[in-house]
Amino acid sequence: MKSITIKGSERESVGKVATKALRNAGAVPCVLYGGDQPVHFSAEEKAFKNLIYTPNAHTVVIELEGKTFNAVLQDTQVHPVSDKILHLDFFQLHDDKEITMEVPVKVTGVSPGVLLGGVLRLNQRRLRVKALPKNLPDFIEAEISGLEMGNKLYVTKLVSEDYKLLHPDNTVVAQVRISRAAMKAAQEAAKAAKAPVKGKKK
């Protein structure tokens, strides 16, 4: 999985006044969990742009005045109106310990059902996986070449030896639904087939 580097500074004071001062200065208060002790730090808000405002999944290298930590983003708090980042929680990665995170789904292939007029619906845009850090995928490939009209692609078709998918077996990742136009055409064709032919002798 691709990584993003965040350069920040450790925080000595973690009270409300200090936190507000950080935000007013354009920085984001953060906490790194998963080590012996939580690490409180801050970094400029713009440093998180490529981590927060993207559909992709990344691991994070946090550099704090000579100290380096490998981590993943665990929780994000944003302002409900301005979308300003208020607080971020990270979890430290360890080579021998599995981590859980959400990974985007990437659709590949061409569905025969879509070619016939069906509509592809992506039910799950992200899937929750559990894996060792080295096995975390950039994305999970959803191959739709076998989907006919009305077919569904279940999460059981996306299994891998590198990671575990933390979803029930009946979770639908994608499906091809009949479009309104195709449904209308089918209904009209059915009516035409039932209609009596003009001039036909009884």
Automatic annotation (TrEMBL):
UniProt keyword list: Ribonucleoprotein, Ribosomal protein, RNA-binding, rRNA-binding
InterPro entries (alphabetical): Rbsml_bL25/Gln-tRNA_synth_N (IPR020056), Ribosomal_bL25/Gln-tRNA_synth (IPR011035), Ribosomal_bL25_b-dom (IPR020057), Ribosomal_bL25_C (IPR037121), Ribosomal_bL25_long (IPR001021), Ribosomal_L25_dom (IPR029751), Ribosomal_uL5_bac-type (IPR020930)
Large ribosomal subunit protein bL25 L25 domain mapped to chain residues: 6-90
GO molecular-function terms, A-Z: 5S rRNA binding; structural constituent of ribosome
Residue stretches making up the Large ribosomal subunit protein bL25 beta domain: 98-178
GO CC term, one of those recorded: cytosolic large ribosomal subunit
Family stated for the protein in its record: Belongs to the bacterial ribosomal protein bL25 family. CTC subfamily.
Entry-linked HAMAP family: Ribosomal_bL25_CTC
Function: This is one of the proteins that binds to the 5S RNA in the ribosome where it forms part of the central protuberance.
Subunit architecture: Part of the 50S ribosomal subunit; part of the 5S rRNA/L5/L18/L25 subcomplex. Contacts the 5S rRNA. Binds to the 5S rRNA independently of L5 and L18.
Protein name, as recorded: Large ribosomal subunit protein bL25
